[in-house]
Amino acid sequence: MTAPALEIEDLRLEIHSAGRASVILRGVNLVVQQGAIHALVGESGGGKSMVTRAATGLLPRGARIVGGRIRLAGQDVTHWSEAQWRQVRGKVVSMVLQDPLTALNPVRRIGAQLADVLKLHLGLRGAACLREAAALLERVHIREPQRVLALYPHQLSGGMRQRVVIAMAWACKPQLILCDEPTTALDVTVQKEVLRLIYELAREGQGVLLVTHDLGVVAKLAQTMSVIHSGRILEEGSVAQVYAQPRHPYTRALLNATPRYDRPGRTLVPVDEALIAALDAEAAAMDRAGARA
Ligand SMILES: Nc1ncnc2c1ncn2[C@@H]1O[C@H](COP(=O)(O)OP(=O)(O)OP(=O)(O)O)[C@@H](O)[C@H]1O
Ligand SMILES: [Mg+2]
């Protein structure tokens, strides 16, 4: 049996700054199977991006993994050095972020940037490299790929830029693609096309961890999901099961705050502040108990 694209087991992470430690992840468990989309949902500050950063070795300064394990396609990467990460980033795991401009170099042509990835990980050179770069752009439904290869990022629309970023992320067919709010910065009309593309890629065998706060997107795209708050996974399961019978009050609150295409006209209720305060208090109590242990 093939190993999952990503397995995170009881991951605990702190950030140390100015002599103080803040607990960010409090024992996160999560599995992304190859060829499947797993959604990670929850409100701002819950730890979604920190999970993706841990899974690609891009933790912020002061961050320390203080417990648990991360496995990428079966390989334990928990305490890898930057040099080790560089060998697999783009090849085994790659990342699509909210703003495509941060992923692209503004002063290099699209073709040159795609060629960098293809050279580094696949050893392609010259005409073969250009052919593959054009094929990748075609694969992400960019028309006139030859013309686009010669352009700079600022000459493309936001949606086109995100397609290029997805093409780069997909270039080496990594086992895992981390998509952190990949459509938040795009026009609504373009969002659908980009999500459709991510869906297609997963069907070709890539495991996708899709970070979003949009439960409508989760329902359409993902097979399995986890709900995170205060660095804790409060609920996980198949999307169908979680939507039909959410077990955790926070999941129910998130669902009640989301428009549902299957229940039009339903009144939306914002997530209750008292519930959030109770979850924060629980997390703080866990930290105190952990500190005493
Ligand atoms: N560089 C950093 N230094 C210190 N704390 C940080 C840093 N980055 C994030 N945090 C903290 O870590 C926690 C989790 O942040 P994270 O960015 O993972 O949340 P998120 O779920 O991705 O939120 P959003 O939906 O807003 O993107 C938050 O409390 C945040 O304040
Ligand atoms: Mg985030």
Q: Could you describe the 3D structure shown?
A:
With 293 residues, the chain is α/β, with parallel strands linked by helices. The protein has one domain (6-107, 152-292): Rossmann fold, CATH 3.40.50. It is 41% helix and 24% strand. The chain has helices at 48-54, 82-88, 100-103, 110-122, 126-139, 145-149, 158-170, 188-203, 215-221, 239-244, 249-256, 273-292; strands at 6-17, 20-32, 37-41, 63-72, 75-76, 93-96, 176-180, 207-212, 224-229, 232-238. It has a six-stranded mixed β-sheet with strand order 6-7-8-3-9-10, sandwiched between helices. Helix 7 runs parallel beside helix 8. The longest helix has 20 residues, at 273-292. The two termini are 38 Å apart. The mean pLDDT is 93. Bound molecules: adenosine-5'-triphosphate (ATP) and magnesium ion (MG).
Keywords summarizing the entry:
alpha/beta; 12 helices; Rossmann fold; binds magnesium ion; 10 strands; 293 residues; binds adenosine-5'-triphosphate
At the first level of CATH, the class is Alpha Beta
From the helix content, strand content and strand pairing, which structural class follows?
Answer: alpha/beta
Q: How would you sum up the global shape?
A: globular
Run of helices and strands: EEEHEEHEHHHHHEHEHEEHHH
Can you tell me the CATH superfamily? P-loop containing nucleotide triphosphate hydrolases
- Radius of gyration (CA) equals 20 Å
Helix content: 40-55%
Give the beta-strand count: 10
Quaternary form: single chain
Distance between the termini: 38 Å
Nearest-integer average pLDDT: 93
Residue runs with pLDDT of under 50 for 5 or more positions: none
Total count of domains? 1
